[in-house]
Amino acid sequence: MPDTTLATPLPLPSGQILPNRLMKAALSEGLADAAAGPDERLIRLYSRWADGGYGLVLTGNVMVDGRHLGEPGNVVVEDDRHLEALTRWAKTGQDGGAKIWMQLNHPGRQGNPLAGSGPTVAPSAVGVAIRGVPAPRALTEEEVHEIIARFATSAAVVEEAGFDGVQIHGAHGYLVSQFLSPLSNRRTDAWGGAVENRARFLVEIIRAVRASVRPGFGVGVKLNSADFQRGGFTADDSRAVVSMIADEAVDLIEISGGSYESPAMVGRPAVSASTRAREAYFLEYATAVRELAGTVPLAVTGGFRTRPAMVEAVADGACDVVGLGRPVALDPAAGRSLAAADAGPLVSPALRLPVPDRIKRVMPTLKALEGVLDLQWHTDQLHRMGDGLDPDPARALWRTAATTVRRNGVDALRSRRGR
Ligand SMILES: Cc1cc2nc3c(=O)[nH]c(=O)nc-3n(C[C@H](O)[C@H](O)[C@H](O)COP(=O)(O)O)c2cc1C
């Protein structure tokens, strides 16, 4: 008898039931149309995942403010102007029985000029420590409230379109995580200082979103276990935030880590060799916060590649849901074989520039370029599926470099931007 751990349904606090424990994690698609609404290619892409056997499909990050974009081709939901296309997107995602949640995000100081984003804003006027990224302006108190209201407005539209829930992007160095980190949040008012104050922005967003949707609608949070930066958001901070949001009406906390300055979410430098050896990068942390999360289920994303590791993580109670990112860009139906029976390891190539490591070590720009190309290579696979093609695991990195330059100019290879 095959083990049924991953195929077991999961009831969420709101009453919504996820059909199984596998989650297609958020992957920014870059497939909006010229008006920042969902393009036909985006909907075609989701028809592949809808059929993929996941209990929960998360969309790539969708912006709550059209003036602030994280990546070229982001969908924006700030009112109901795209309701018709959003409705088709939701319905397509649900066709195979999965729940579909939209990830909502504001990039803050990680706003991307290549995406046509204007001057950036952040909790404080502290820039990202990456060359070429302009410094942000500090938000006024009034603007902080306005952004909280935007998350609520977007969630109401997303619900009207038929999505089953939203996930607030509180990880990876975007605005919510900028508020959480003492490195980027130097405010001395009620939004800065002690972790309770730094978490206020996230808590207020959760409350505003909850107040704008019906009780059975899913509300989740993606949270960093830490930023992996000296002086940044620590594991202790993260534990405190988990305790705080466990008291709110949250359905699922997804654990990730890192930011563009330190991309631990995709297992790059900050993740130690011992952590990488355990396959899933943030599992140890999840085990440690399990109790603090109370009745709120936990998802862990980052590094999961083999079925036995996924089964063990859920069976041991380290997490309730297994998030899959890069592998589902190559095998959109991975969830089906994983949930049903024995499946071999998922394909997820380690993409490397053909340059010796010792040279990369002394030339950090090469390392950064490798990181950008890795993200773009996966984005290319999403675009192939949007065009009605199959993913191409053998795609050469130079092809990705050429496509990226054609799409977004040579600057796209310089700055470390992505998800
Ligand atoms: C191309 C690409 C796009 C991504 N876009 C997002 C995003 O929009 N929102 C998000 O929270 N994470 C995003 N991520 C991070 C993934 O959700 C996930 O946390 C990460 O890839 C680690 O999981 P994995 O090891 O299964 O790939 C992205 C990752 C990649 C490779």
UniProtKB/TrEMBL annotation:
Gene Ontology molecular-function annotations: FMN binding; oxidoreductase activity
Q: Which CDD domains match?
A: OYE_like_2_FMN
* Keyword Oxidoreductase assigned: yes
Question: What region holds the NADH:flavin oxidoreductase/NADH oxidase N-terminal domain?
Answer: 10-333
The protein's matches in InterPro entries, at most eight in alphabetical order, are given as:
Aldolase_TIM, NADH_flavin_oxidoreductase, OxRdtase_FMN_N
Q: Short name of one Pfam family for this protein?
A: Oxidored_FMN
The organism's taxonomic lineage, starting at the top = Bacteria, Bacillati, Actinomycetota, Actinomycetes, Mycobacteriales
The protein here is known as: 2,4-dienoyl-CoA reductase-like NADH-dependent reductase (Old Yellow Enzyme family)
Give the matching PANTHER family: BINDING OXIDOREDUCTASE, PUTATIVE (AFU_ORTHOLOGUE AFUA_2G08260)-RELATED
